[in-house]
Amino acid sequence: MRKRIIAAILAAALLLCLTACGASASAVYEVRFELNGGTLVSGQLLQHVEAGGAAVPPEVEREGYAFAGWSEDLETISANTVAAALWTKAEAAPAVYEVRFELNGGTLVSGQLLQRVEEGGAAVAPEVEREGYAFAGWSEDLDGISANTVAVALWESYCRVSFDAAGGEIVSGEAEQLIRRGDTPEAPKVERAYYDFEGWSPALGTVDKDCSFTALWTARKLSSEEIFDRISPAVVEITAYEPSGSAYLGSGFFIDDAGRFVTNYHVIDGTDRGEIALPDGNTCAILAVLAYDKALDLAVLQADIYGNAYLTISEQSVSTGESVYALGSSQGLTSTFSSGIVSTASREIDGVRCIQTTAPISHGNSGGPLVDPYGEVVGVNSMTWASGQNLNFAIDIHELDRLESGQSLTLAEVYAAEYPDGAPDTPEDAGFYEEADAAEKESNDSFLLSDRMENGAWIAGEISGVGDMDWFFFELDEACDVNFEVLPYYSDDFDYLLCGILSLNDSDDDVDLIDALSPTKLDGYDAFTGTIHFDAPGSYFLVLFVDETYPFDEPSYYAARASW
Predict the structure, then answer these.
(1) Helix (H) or strand (E) holding 10
(2) What HEC string does 143-188 produce?
(3) Assigned fold of 424-563
(4) 95-216: CATH homologous superfamily?
């Protein structure tokens, strides 16, 4: 009995112990969330959390406030807990305003015409333009926007103004300007080598329409050294080749920076290709003949070059007694520079205006420039009178105006046009070219370009057709008789060949007819002969040509001799 009582007591004690231990391990606490003026977004406001556990805070919000946390620690719950939401007053979001841009007759180049800008911010002005107007700004302040805004483009009428340096260069300033009507443009600074700036045309002043101003320059007289420095970079040596390969030498000069140059036509006559040598020693091909006139003895050609130095053509006429300068490849000597004066400012030779000078030139100078004391071109050196004393001639540069423009032919095409049958062959049985002492040298188409005749020497030559004249000069040391003999090769030419003897006139600037040779027979051949007495020593001339009725396509060949 006693043992049963003890066992029951022990069992009860054990059960009490177990019950107490189990209650301690599973304690659960209540966690309540109070919104404190806010609202629940998600989660639970009443939670049961085991002792030591963490509550899961719900998501809450409150208009005009920023959530700042909970009033209690929710990480380790050890008792029933009430957690109140904590709030801080939220800053108000900035206001956003609309900014609209109106073009007011202009057009949009870039940017946006409708923008939304936060209060206090700045709008980004678009780029706009309007034909005939200058943009003057916007009607509203675009910085610190504080309300919806309409900004209207403001325009001012303007003029387009341009400045032409007229051969000079702009050192500073703008060549193209937009000027408000009624304002005065700011002229750029200009300069030009060898010239003095005189002002603008028209004179600067207020403008009320689109306009341009052109620089006015006055050429200044240069020293001979300055003239050479100015013109030599633009003068070239020409080598032109016949189909046979024979070469002709001459000179030329550029008249623009695109490779156009001027020379005498006789430099390229009868040639089908050529090249020019530049002052720096380089060479380039002749690409085309842009204009030419055989009677004027002028040609404008195109070289394979761009950006070259060039010469200015004088707008003024030279005066007798004025200094002039010549440059060319005299006798093949490149850049031969000479000076002299104008003997006669305007002399017409075979219908061509020429300038007679004392500036020495010789073979190879043909086509080179004759320039005035300002270094501007007044003529194209063309010929020298071999029988005279320092009588040299240049074709007036303004004769270029008589050339027909718009051509673009190769030298070969010009050759084909001028010589459709090719170069005339020497007659096989004429005997003149094989047996003659000399042959004529073209161009000898005027008395100033006469070939020399030696006493008793036969000269063989040919007249290409109507308009061609062959001139020869001979010099007598004393009064004497001179016997002339001219033998046509073709007997058919006898009726058309004319032979004249001439002398210089009193002013030495032209020739007068003395006599004509008479048709006769010489050793059974048709010939022109005559013996003429000359009363004084001096230079005299023989000229041969065919009359206007000459019917043949072939040249007229002849041999001529003068004996004294």
Answers:
(1) helix 2-25
(2) CCCCCCEEEEEEEEEEEEEEEECCCCEEEECCCEEEEECCCCCCCC
(3) Jelly Rolls (2.60.120)
(4) Listeria-Bacteroides repeat domain (2.60.40.4270)
Instruction: Give the Cα separation of 426 and 442 in Å (integer).
Output: 16
Q: What's the pLDDT at 492?
A: 79
211-222 pLDDT, tens digit per residue, is: 999 999 998 999
Quote the longest CA-to-CA distance of the chain.
201
Q: Which SS3 state, helix, strand or coil, does residue 411 take?
A: helix
Whole-angstrom distance, CA of residue 226 vs CA of residue 233? 12
- pLDDT value at position 405? 83
Which stretches of the chain drop beneath a pLDDT of 50?
1, 14-15, 17-24, 425-431
Cα(323)–Cα(358) distance, integer angstroms: 9
Torsion of CA 452, 265, 512, 455, to 10 degrees: 10
Residue 286 near residue 273 (C-beta atoms within 8 A): yes
DSSP-assigned states of every residue in 265-328: HHHHTT-SEEEEE-TTS-EEEEEEEEEEETTTTEEEEEES--S---PPBPSSPP-TT-EEEEEE
Domain residue limits, the chain: 23-89, 95-216, 224-414, 424-563
Q: pTM value?
A: 0.55
Q: Residue 230, Cβ neighbours under 10 Å: how many?
A: 19
Smallest CA-to-CA distance from 483 within 539, 562, 559 is with 562
Which SS3 state, helix, strand or coil, does residue 526 take? strand
CA angle centred on 455, ends 452 and 456, rounded to 5°: 115
